[in-house]
Specification:
The chain has 104 residues and is an alpha+beta fold. The protein contains two helices and five strands; from the N terminus they run E-E-E-H-E-E-H. Strands 1-2-5-4-3 form a five-stranded antiparallel sheet, with helices on one face.
Length: 104
């Protein structure tokens, strides 16, 4: 349930930077920047995404502006896992989860 996000990844000409373009606006017109040593308290979609991405490891910084996500990474970053995390941001029941139709 929920809507998957379409994600296109693109390596930057800057070593260690990967950009992800999505088909959703995550921040409105604002910019959000995150560092791994910073506590992320908010509940906005960009905040939740940043928490999920840092859990993957290999990320030293995240910048989100509207539908663009820029990730500063170490060489061991698994880009496919980042794409999966972004695509699943709005999924309430990941694939394979059984949902009961019984309301009680």
């Amino acid at each position: 349930m929920g809507q998957p996000i379409t994600v296109v990844s693109q390596k930057s000409s800057t070593v260690g930077v990967v950009r992800f373009e999505v088909n959703r606006c995550l921040t409105g017109m604002g910019h959000e920047r995150y560092r791994p040593d910073q506590e992320i308290l908010g509940g906005a979609p960009a905040d939740e995404l940043a928490r999920r991405l840092f859990e993957l490891g290999g990320i030293s910084g995240i910048h989100i502006n509207s539908n663009m996500i820029t990730v500063e990474s170490t060489p061991d970053l698994n880009v496919d896992r980042v794409v999966e995390a972004i695509a699943g941001l709005h999924l309430y029941y990941p694939e394979g989860t059984e949902v009961s139709g019984d309301d009680g």
